[in-house]
Design a protein that fits this description.
mainly alpha, 60% helix, transmembrane
Length: 183
């Protein structure tokens, strides 16, 4: 009998939903939504390249960035989708699904999300994004032999907002940690 009661308690603990932590503030929601928007211009630009538009590249430069055939455009589409999906995940730091797994997800649905399960990927994301996008601060000093002057300027303006992604994500991670510190 004790074994059945013990199993019952374990099952209840694993399937119960924890009460949500303090709700994210309005500014946190705005930052998370801004992250999804700052990655959008570069993603749309990549989709344009994948559709065959040189969008600021010289003929040779375009062949380098988007080789003919299936894989060149497919890579650009995949890169756009992965980038926007990664940006979308920042919403998990301010939404309910960052605290409790949605019920429609098999096996895990309804369970509490351990704060580390959200914070570790967030901080890894901060590190990767810092390495990827901080060099864009020097975009205007970088040579662009494969681009037209107008294209170089345009791409700079499309990609420069990505520099803000890492600090914005870090801000959300700190705020998430504060909200979940005592849970």
């Amino acid at each position: 009998m004790d074994m059945i009661v013990g199993m019952s308690t374990t099952v209840e603990r694993l399937t119960s939903t924890a009460p949500p932590a303090r709700h994210a503030s309005r500014w946190e929601h705005r930052v998370a939504h801004a992250i999804t928007l700052i990655s959008l211009p570069s993603g749309l630009w990549r989709l344009g390249l994948a559709m065959g538009f040189p969008l600021g590249y010289t003929a040779d430069g375009y062949q380098t960035i988007c080789p003919p055939g299936f894989w060149g455009p497919a890579y650009l589409v995949l890169l756009a989708v992965v980038s926007e999906s990664a940006a979308f995940l920042s919403l998990g730091l301010v939404r309910q699904w960052g605290e409790v797994v949605p019920r429609w997800i098999p096996i895990m649905g309804g369970r509490s999300v351990p704060p580390k399960a959200a914070l570790v990927p967030a901080w890894l994301g901060v590190a990767v994004l810092t390495v990827l996008w901080t060099p864009l601060l020097a975009w205007w000093a970088m040579p662009a032999d494969d681009m037209t002057p107008t294209g170089h300027t345009l791409v700079g303006f499309l990609y420069l907002p990505l520099v803000a992604w890492a600090p914005m994500l870090a801000t959300l991670a700190v705020a998430y940690n504060r909200r979940h510190r005592h849970h």
